[in-house]
Fold each of these.
Amino acid sequence: MKYSAAIDLGGTNIGIGIVSEEGELVFKYSVPVEDNKNPEALLEQMAKGTLDTIAAAGMEVSDIAFVGIGIPGVCRSNKGPVILAPNINWHNVDAVPFLEERIGLPVLLGNDADCAAMGEYYAGAGKQYQSLIMITLGTGVGGGVVIDGKLFPGCNGFGGEFGHIPLVHGGVKCGCGKHGCFEVYGSANALKRETREMAEQHPESLIWEMCEGNLDNIGGRTAFDAADQGDETGKAIVEQYISYLADGISGIVNIFRPEVVVLGGGVSNQGASLLDPLNEKVAKLCYANETIEAPKVVKATLGNSAGIIGAGLLGF
Ligand SMILES: [Zn+2]
């Protein structure tokens, strides 16, 4: 059995693991980012963390085939450079030569959402399919496309940015500077914003009770919980949110026609109360839905480990 070391690089934490060629995460370790303002300090911390993890797993550097890294940004190729990773302040950082010299192993980079898609494809919800789209609903909306075992990176690695599909003409302003992106209607943050706005218009809603009179306590589950208890405002928020998700997802399906769509991120934990109505809407919106069945939207199964497992599979 061959093994890789894998890094899931976030803005606040570095997840480091040992992954088998079959996609099993055999050892996992996490450290807080010490300095996200200085790329060199972060690279130094990543190199040290990798060597420490290999040792802590009871392995030698020579037992490891390569180091795979999921980057929260865009890489020109899997050898870099990292063109842009705003959360860690990286602009044109040539990470690979630095890390290869410090660690003494080949290093491969991938976008973190792409790595999560690879993880789900090989070891999670996409295991029995040839093609998969992964969509992660979190602070934003991220995604990855895997076709016949390979990622579709797009030109210069800028492909698969599902969060920035224009969904609503002249809509809410997005973090990317444009208006009406899928992300500002489909992310967990968007759901919280909608819940808050609707609660303000509906003082009779159960939402007020659920957040103890303080709208700052609203979470991604609040509207779903209210809807479950029969609250009309909660039901309207959930219905609208799922409609936006269905619009975005069916658009993506019409372009790539994957065999399955895998949903990740905290919102996907809503389970059937999200997935059943979502699948119903997506099935109706997809092209030629009366002739050919639309792909199923299913929940990711690897949770937070998808990214690190996918990074660990980059070279296998
Ligand atoms: Zn955008």
Amino acid sequence: MKSRLDWTKAKLNRIEDIATDVREFTFDTEAVLGRFQPGSHINIKVETAHGPALRTYTCVHNGPRQLTIAVKRHENSRGGSAFMWQLQPEVAVEISLPENRFELSWGAPSYLLIAGGIGITPVAGMAKALAARGAEVRMVYAARSAQHFAYGDELKSVLGDRLQQFASDAGQRVDFAREIAALPEGGEAYACGPIRMLNDLKAAWAEAGRHFSRLRFEVFGDSGTFAERDFEVEILNRSGRIKVRPDETLLDALRAADVPMIYDCQRGECGLCAVGVLEHSGAIDHRDVFFSEGEKASGERMCACVSRFDGGLARIDTGYRL
Ligand code: FES
């Protein structure tokens, strides 16, 4: 069961490579879109080797009838980035209308923006919008190398020395404790990046005694502690085993096997897809931002849409509901 989305037909108007492994796609949409909101996202219907699927991408910008997203090419693509990267101009696709679950509040006295890799897509729009309003804003942006900074030049021209870039191949790392200390009390932080970066940020935020209501973040659904591997699951009160391939999620595999599931965001945010974990031989790779660190450490539940097991066999209870 999935919450209802409103869809529009769209035609691919323009493709541009904007950084190593990052390609921007601009679509002309049939439907009239609302005003652009930084942090908003769309779903797109894609074809994978295993059939049709939905993938979610952040809107980098939209006009009344035009919408731009940026997509990273993934080595272990579950089919979404592989599908997107083979698209050619004029092709017709179906996309859902933008919705926003990573909203920027406009009333904070100051802002710290944090982006890691393709996590720049929601954060860049926030930086430009805040700078245009004259807000007090600083940004730290980490990427694998100088060639991986999508929108780096544009942001530099908007933010000047309020932007700091960190290239990991040059040994540069963000010092979250220092960045948080430089954020005036009452300031808000917005972050998007891989889960390990966000875990470090959350730990530093807690250590600094900052209130969690002032830290907002979004994670890549596909960034985890372990590389994707096959694993198998058995389900309480159901016979047989279900195999989960490296290129599919546990939720996808359960649905393909006709296991009734409730889900919504498919980004590890809402918790609707949570299942109980009864036994497991491979470690749980929690990739959601829904459960607390304590809940993750207990190993009792996991979000089937993003989290997975590091190989082996697990027994789960899909009857578990929040
Ligand atoms: S569907 Fe929202 S966390 Fe899985």
